[in-house]
Amino acid sequence: MSISFPTNTDVSKLLGSLLGDAVPLNTHGAPPPADASFTAVCLDDEGQPVGAICADLRAAAYLAGKLLMMPVDPLIESATSEGLPESAVDALSEVFNNLTICINDVEGNPHVRSLRAVPTTDAVADQEWLGSASSRMDFGGSFANANATLSFVSK
Q: Residue 13: what are its φ and ψ, rounded to 5°?
C-alpha cells in the first residue's frame, strides 16, 4: 500500500502551528532523497511500512531547534560538524509524528504513525524499499534563511 501526499499549504500550516513560524514551502518530486540526513518510517495500523518522512540536515536542525525553542543558527552549525544531539533527534521525531496528521488527513490514505527519526543510512539499511520508493514529494523552503528540504516518501 502506498500513501498520497499532503499539500504544501497543509504542511506549512501544520509547521506554523507547531513551531510558531510559518514556513513557506514549494513542492517538487523526485526519487528518494540521497541527501536526507534523518528519516522516520511511517507504519500503517497493521505495522507495515507505507512511507517515510525525511529531512536534510538543515531542515532537521531547524525543525528540532524551533520545537525546543533553541537558537536555530548555532544548532545548525553544530549539526553540520557534530550531528544532532539526542534531544534534537527526539524533537525532530516529534515534529515528524505531528506531520503524520497531514498524511492521515489525505482522503484514501491509511492511518499512519511515524517511528523515531534515525539517520537515513540506518533507515535505508533497515527498510530496503526506501532505495526504490515509488514516489516522493519534497517540500523545499527557507529554513533559517537558507534552503532546506523536507520530504514525504511513499512505498
A: -65, -45
| Helix/strand/coil percent split, the chain, to 5 | 45, 25, 30
d(CA 14, CA 117): 18
Cell of 16: 506554523
Give the chain's domains with CATH numbers: 8-17+28-154 (3.40.1550.10)
DSSP state for residue 116 in the 8-state scheme = -
> Letter for the amino acid at 20?
G
**Coil, strand or helix at 59:** helix
Stated as kind and residue range, the H or E segment containing 46 is: none
pLDDT tens per residue, range 102-136: 999 999 999 999 999 999 889 989 998 888 888 88
Tell me the whole-structure pTM to 2 decimals. Answer: 0.86
SS3 call for 102: helix
